[in-house]
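Below is one record:
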Amino acid sequence: MRNREDRGQLLLGVARGAILVCAAVLMVLSAAGPADSATEDTAFLVAKGRVTYRVYCINCHGAKAKGDGTLAELLTVKPTDLTLLTKENKGAFPADQVMKSVDGREQIRGHGMKEMPVWGDVFQTSGTQPTGSDETAEERARRKIRELVLYLDSIQIVE
């Protein structure tokens, strides 16, 4: 890479490509429409979260979520090891904090650069609604974030 702008363009291009290539996978998973969360199996939600992770997070956080993705060396801030969130939070998985961090829309954008993309905005526009679905873009974003958080909770290393 010649300079920081080239690296930024590469990162942006890879992220866009991942979104386009994997949107089809997410559309297939959501083709059944939004299910009642009380009746949906947790393992299925975790599996959907794993797909979301592989589409949107793996390039920076790595296949094993250790913060060593293929783009990690290009970033000025090292990606978090997502397997240690519970351990670093005194044995309790910080689900609310993780949801807000992934969503990213609550932070005041005038207070400096964010290290992570604002996934809440991306999840609102990614994929399409299944025919007959009354799920709003906001509901879709929140559902995807919830599924991702369930997946992250499932991969915690607690020793």
Summary: Confidence is low (pLDDT under 50) at residues 20-29, 108-113. Residues 4-154 form one domain.
